[in-house]
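note to self — DONT lose this again. spent like an hour looking for the file last time. sequence + predicted structure for the chain T wanted, 181 res
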Amino acid sequence: MSRNAFPASWDYETDILIVGFGGAGACAAIAAADRGADVLIVEKQAEDGYYSNIRMSGGAFHSPRPDGNRDVLEANALAMFSGDNLPWKLEGKLPSAIASELAAAWAEYAPQNLAWMQDLDPEYSAVEERGAVFPEFPGADESAYRVLRSTYSGEINNKNRCQKDDPKSVTESCEAFYTCL
Protein backbone atom coordinates (compact mmCIF):
# COMPACT_ATOMS: atom_id res chain seq x y z
CA MET A 1 0.00 0.00 0.00
CA SER A 2 1.51 3.35 -0.94
CA ARG A 3 1.79 6.22 1.51
CA ASN A 4 -1.01 8.04 -0.26
CA ALA A 5 -3.32 5.06 0.23
CA PHE A 6 -3.39 5.44 4.02
CA PRO A 7 -6.36 7.30 5.50
CA ALA A 8 -5.76 10.43 7.59
CA SER A 9 -6.08 8.28 10.69
CA TRP A 10 -5.79 4.55 10.93
CA ASP A 11 -5.71 1.83 13.52
CA TYR A 12 -3.91 -1.45 12.92
CA GLU A 13 -3.03 -4.22 15.32
CA THR A 14 -0.13 -6.54 14.67
CA ASP A 15 2.20 -8.89 16.49
CA ILE A 16 5.32 -7.37 14.95
CA LEU A 17 5.77 -3.90 13.45
CA ILE A 18 8.73 -3.53 11.10
CA VAL A 19 9.83 0.04 10.41
CA GLY A 20 11.60 0.14 7.04
CA PHE A 21 11.74 -2.44 4.29
CA GLY A 22 15.48 -2.60 3.73
CA GLY A 23 17.58 -5.71 4.25
CA ALA A 24 17.21 -5.86 8.04
CA GLY A 25 13.50 -5.11 7.90
CA ALA A 26 12.92 -7.73 5.22
CA CYS A 27 14.88 -10.38 7.16
CA ALA A 28 13.05 -9.58 10.39
CA ALA A 29 9.65 -9.66 8.66
CA ILE A 30 10.38 -12.97 6.94
CA ALA A 31 11.66 -14.61 10.14
CA ALA A 32 8.67 -13.38 12.18
CA ALA A 33 6.12 -14.42 9.54
CA ASP A 34 7.77 -17.85 9.25
CA ARG A 35 7.14 -18.29 12.98
CA GLY A 36 3.46 -17.42 12.61
CA ALA A 37 3.49 -13.76 13.63
CA ASP A 38 1.19 -11.21 12.05
CA VAL A 39 3.66 -8.71 10.56
CA LEU A 40 3.07 -5.15 9.41
CA ILE A 41 5.80 -3.29 7.54
CA VAL A 42 5.79 0.50 7.27
CA GLU A 43 8.09 2.09 4.72
CA LYS A 44 8.63 5.80 4.11
CA GLN A 45 9.20 5.42 0.36
CA ALA A 46 6.16 5.29 -1.87
CA GLU A 47 5.55 1.87 -3.39
CA ASP A 48 5.82 3.08 -6.99
CA GLY A 49 9.30 4.55 -6.43
CA TYR A 50 10.63 2.19 -3.77
CA TYR A 51 14.37 1.56 -3.95
CA SER A 52 15.88 0.39 -0.66
CA ASN A 53 19.47 0.84 0.53
CA ILE A 54 20.00 -2.91 0.24
CA ARG A 55 19.57 -2.57 -3.53
CA MET A 56 22.51 -0.14 -3.57
CA SER A 57 24.68 -1.81 -0.91
CA GLY A 58 26.80 -4.18 -2.96
CA GLY A 59 24.97 -7.33 -1.90
CA ALA A 60 27.72 -8.61 0.38
CA PHE A 61 26.89 -10.37 3.63
CA HIS A 62 28.72 -12.22 6.38
CA SER A 63 28.30 -15.97 6.60
CA PRO A 64 31.16 -17.89 8.20
CA ARG A 65 31.37 -21.50 7.04
CA PRO A 66 29.35 -23.77 9.35
CA ASP A 67 32.36 -26.10 9.77
CA GLY A 68 34.47 -23.37 11.39
CA ASN A 69 35.44 -23.38 15.05
CA ARG A 70 32.45 -21.83 16.87
CA ASP A 71 34.43 -20.86 19.97
CA VAL A 72 37.03 -19.10 17.85
CA LEU A 73 34.27 -17.40 15.82
CA GLU A 74 32.77 -16.12 19.06
CA ALA A 75 36.16 -14.74 20.15
CA ASN A 76 36.57 -13.09 16.75
CA ALA A 77 33.10 -11.55 17.02
CA LEU A 78 33.82 -10.37 20.56
CA ALA A 79 36.90 -8.59 19.26
CA MET A 80 34.70 -6.83 16.67
CA PHE A 81 31.87 -5.93 19.03
CA SER A 82 33.73 -4.99 22.22
CA GLY A 83 36.25 -2.51 20.93
CA ASP A 84 38.65 -3.72 23.64
CA ASN A 85 41.29 -4.58 21.07
CA LEU A 86 41.14 -1.16 19.43
CA PRO A 87 43.31 1.22 21.46
CA TRP A 88 42.36 4.16 19.23
CA LYS A 89 38.64 3.59 19.87
CA LEU A 90 37.57 6.41 22.16
CA GLU A 91 33.81 6.02 21.92
CA GLY A 92 31.13 3.54 20.89
CA LYS A 93 32.60 0.63 22.84
CA LEU A 94 29.92 -1.82 23.95
CA PRO A 95 29.70 -2.88 27.60
CA SER A 96 31.32 -6.30 28.12
CA ALA A 97 28.08 -8.14 28.94
CA ILE A 98 26.32 -6.85 25.81
CA ALA A 99 29.33 -7.51 23.59
CA SER A 100 29.61 -11.08 24.97
CA GLU A 101 25.93 -11.86 24.38
CA LEU A 102 26.06 -10.36 20.91
CA ALA A 103 29.21 -12.34 20.04
CA ALA A 104 27.62 -15.60 21.27
CA ALA A 105 24.51 -14.98 19.15
CA TRP A 106 26.67 -14.04 16.14
CA ALA A 107 28.72 -17.25 16.44
CA GLU A 108 25.54 -19.33 16.64
CA TYR A 109 23.51 -17.74 13.86
CA ALA A 110 25.88 -16.09 11.34
CA PRO A 111 27.07 -19.43 9.90
CA GLN A 112 23.42 -20.10 8.97
CA ASN A 113 23.02 -16.96 6.83
CA LEU A 114 23.77 -18.54 3.45
CA ALA A 115 21.56 -21.57 4.12
CA TRP A 116 18.73 -19.28 5.25
CA MET A 117 18.93 -17.29 2.03
CA GLN A 118 18.98 -20.50 -0.03
CA ASP A 119 15.93 -21.75 1.88
CA LEU A 120 14.12 -18.60 0.76
CA ASP A 121 15.00 -19.32 -2.86
CA PRO A 122 16.83 -22.50 -3.95
CA GLU A 123 17.99 -20.72 -7.15
CA TYR A 124 19.94 -18.19 -5.07
CA SER A 125 23.68 -18.59 -4.64
CA ALA A 126 26.66 -16.64 -3.40
CA VAL A 127 30.35 -16.37 -4.17
CA GLU A 128 33.05 -15.75 -1.62
CA GLU A 129 34.39 -12.24 -1.84
CA ARG A 130 36.91 -12.47 0.98
CA GLY A 131 37.66 -14.06 4.29
CA ALA A 132 37.55 -12.21 7.59
CA VAL A 133 36.74 -8.53 7.54
CA PHE A 134 39.36 -8.01 10.24
CA PRO A 135 42.02 -10.65 9.56
CA GLU A 136 44.16 -9.34 12.43
CA PHE A 137 41.48 -10.22 15.02
CA PRO A 138 41.83 -13.51 16.92
CA GLY A 139 40.95 -16.66 14.99
CA ALA A 140 40.13 -15.01 11.68
CA ASP A 141 41.20 -18.09 9.71
CA GLU A 142 40.25 -20.84 12.16
CA SER A 143 36.75 -19.39 12.57
CA ALA A 144 36.12 -19.92 8.82
CA TYR A 145 34.90 -16.34 8.57
CA ARG A 146 33.89 -15.25 5.09
CA VAL A 147 32.10 -12.46 3.30
CA LEU A 148 29.86 -13.56 0.45
CA ARG A 149 28.31 -11.69 -2.43
CA SER A 150 24.85 -12.54 -3.72
CA THR A 151 24.25 -13.88 -7.22
CA TYR A 152 21.72 -15.65 -9.40
CA SER A 153 24.09 -15.81 -12.36
CA GLY A 154 26.73 -17.73 -10.39
CA GLU A 155 29.23 -14.93 -10.96
CA ILE A 156 29.97 -11.38 -9.90
CA ASN A 157 30.73 -9.38 -13.00
CA ASN A 158 28.45 -6.40 -12.65
CA LYS A 159 29.03 -5.00 -9.17
CA ASN A 160 28.61 -1.43 -10.32
CA ARG A 161 25.91 -1.73 -12.95
CA CYS A 162 22.25 -1.19 -12.09
CA GLN A 163 20.34 -4.41 -12.64
CA LYS A 164 16.95 -3.25 -11.40
CA ASP A 165 15.04 -4.36 -14.48
CA ASP A 166 17.18 -7.37 -15.41
CA PRO A 167 15.77 -10.91 -15.29
CA LYS A 168 16.35 -12.64 -11.95
CA SER A 169 18.64 -15.24 -13.52
CA VAL A 170 21.32 -12.67 -14.33
CA THR A 171 21.15 -10.48 -11.24
CA GLU A 172 24.22 -10.20 -9.05
CA SER A 173 25.33 -8.37 -5.92
CA CYS A 174 22.77 -6.04 -4.35
CA GLU A 175 19.96 -6.74 -6.79
CA ALA A 176 20.34 -10.50 -6.29
CA PHE A 177 20.28 -10.03 -2.50
CA TYR A 178 17.14 -7.89 -2.74
CA THR A 179 15.50 -10.29 -5.20
CA CYS A 180 16.03 -13.19 -2.84
CA LEU A 181 14.46 -11.31 0.07
